Protein 1
Amino acid sequence: MRFASDTRVYIAGCGGMLGAAVHLLFSRRCDVRATDIDVNEPWLHRADIREHQVMREEIEKHQPNAIINLGALTDLELCERDPKNTWDTNAYGAEFLGTLARERDIPYVYISTAGIFDGLKDFYNDDDQPTPLSVYGKSKHYAETAIPRAVPKHFILRAGWMMGGGLRKDKKFINKIYKQIAGGAKELRVVDDKLGTPTYTHDFARGILRLLESDKYGLYNQVGGGDGSRHDVAVEFVRLLGLEKSIRVVRVGSEEFAREYFAPRPRSECLVNCKLNELGLNVMRDWRVCLQEYAQEFIPDLRMRGL
């Protein structure tokens, strides 16, 4: 696929942290229609991937040359509480968007997750067999298997622990840690028994673009380089903020947060970008380099607070 100013790309579920990065990158290169159920930006329009007729009308009206589906429920506890909504969004809605792409004979991008594995291995490559533990993981795995049947021109990209979006859009680990810091915490209790591969939204967006340009359809792990525990990430983030002398990061086990985070999670969500490396298409940087870049977004707020 080649991008030009008149190339039309439809991005569903574009209101979140990854959507911000994908929209920023693609809107500079082509004509983008971005939608979400949460219209939190002036460039967003409302559309719900669970509403199949609405999505059909959207695609027929805007006639895209590619569809990127970022729409997902990613809160694991919410997914356990509301499995129907989870499956309607992460699985069936995603599958239906794939059929719309097939009808137009255009590429379709779906974002999967490291959470489809059971965590019994230390590292997982692209071809390892998924054994999801949670409702979230099972819904994502369904889409991984259904989409190749629904649309030949597909890209399925497995993300790791996502970071990006800043104070306003980051609903994941980094901003949760920062909110504790901003609230005056001098001690952070962080688990060291969960391992993963932090993944920067801006790198991930560049990876989507690179793959679409390559026309090499298929399923790929696409995560940041390196790996670590939640504790490792928190320690590095605190250091990058220049607070390592005033904030203590304490190692704890997952059982300390078992009531709040009750959804089953794999011990290891570490992925390896084997196929991207083999094809020379890996644009993902080491997570520490990315975190150094990302941490700069929090510095102005930190200074404003006098921390």
Note: Residues 134 and 264 are 6 Å apart (CA to CA).
Protein 2
Amino acid sequence: MTPSRRVAPPDFDRRTLLKAGLLSAVGLAMPLPAWARFAPAGASEKALSFYNTHTGEQVKKTVFWADGKFVPDALTNLNVLLRDHRTGQVEEIDPDLFLLVHRIRQRLDTKEPIHVISGYRSPASNRKLRQTSNGVAKHSLHMDGKAIDLRIPGRDLALLRKTALSMKTGGVGYYPDSDFVHVDTGRVRFW
């Protein structure tokens, strides 16, 4: 039998304990990461299916969130699908937007693919659209990858709007004549 070694306790002084307490308090007081506003509790995987109405491309059941974090390859594929179909320009889409759309889809209890009317929009495309339509914002969040215009087959457009509004997260625009709802991760507002 070997004699036991006595291990000295860590050398904590009053200053070290105060620093640790202060850092803990600051950590608790900090706002949640942005994605935490949108991330639903529960499921370890979150997936979406999209159909781009302009290109005919689709992404079937892409897991974009797994084990508490975003899946980079899936986000890359979704960024390509939501590219500016006029110019082909691909930009990063705000991952919070995917979480928001996922929550909307869950509330509507559907597995149907989300029909994308507009995802990312380049400044050049936005300018062109503004010349032909009065419903296009000069500083559209589409140009920041924070907005999507969508519809869901088999779900009433007014119900989609109502569901998006109930999230109280970002902007919601209702365009029944053009058959889509706009959702974004900007400030809460509706039109």
Note: The chain has one domain: 40-190.
